[in-house]
Amino acid sequence: MNIKIMTMIMRVACLQRFKWLALLAIPLIVGGCAMAPHDEAMSDQEIVAKRAQERWGLLIEGRVESAYEYLSTGYRQVTPFPHYQKTVKGVGIWKSAEVSEVSCESAEVCTAMVDIRVVIRYPLMKGPIETGNQIKEKWVKDGDGNWGFLPTMN
């Protein structure tokens, strides 16, 4: 037999074996991704702290529409985004937000304490004023097990 033909046959056989090896490896890779830690492995307090911190990060960046997705399902059902957007005051002056504590009153309701820092600039002042406050947020778990922020009337 010609050496070129034998070489081609060996390459095809090698590729066939590689194809089967690749097909066997795919479920292992996908299975490994599926076993990555998710919110299910976290406590309710940790989930609420994470979601509250993410929501405030979006608000500080001015991404109000993305932050809207962190609201409770029930609130979003009765409050369209344009209406909610009008209630958000502080975009542009918020400097930082840090969730300092989360406590859960029940399996469906948690309270997050958030330390907010703002920078206020007035034209007649020599420089900006930085101040802060701690706010209390209610977070509720919906029927699907997702935690959402529930704004309250002030």
What does this structure look like?
Helices cover 44% and strands 26% of the residues. The chain has helices spanning 3-34, 44-60, 64-68, 73-78, 81-87, and strands at 94-104, 109-120, 129-141, 147-150. The chain has a four-stranded antiparallel β-sheet, with helices on one face. A hairpin with an 8-residue loop joins strand 2 and strand 3 (129-141). The radius of gyration is 26 Å and the shape is globular.
Overall geometric form: globular
Low-confidence segments = 18-37
What is the overall number of helices? 5
Q: In whole angstroms, how far apart are the ends?
A: 89 Å
Structural class: alpha+beta
Strand content: 25-35%
* Order of strands in the sheet with most strands: 1-2-3-4
| Relative helix content | 40-55%
Describe the main β-sheet briefly: 4 strands, antiparallel
What is the H/E string? HHHHHEEEE
What's the total count of β strands?
Answer: 4
Task: Compute the average pLDDT.
Answer: 82
Give me the Rg, rounded: 26 Å
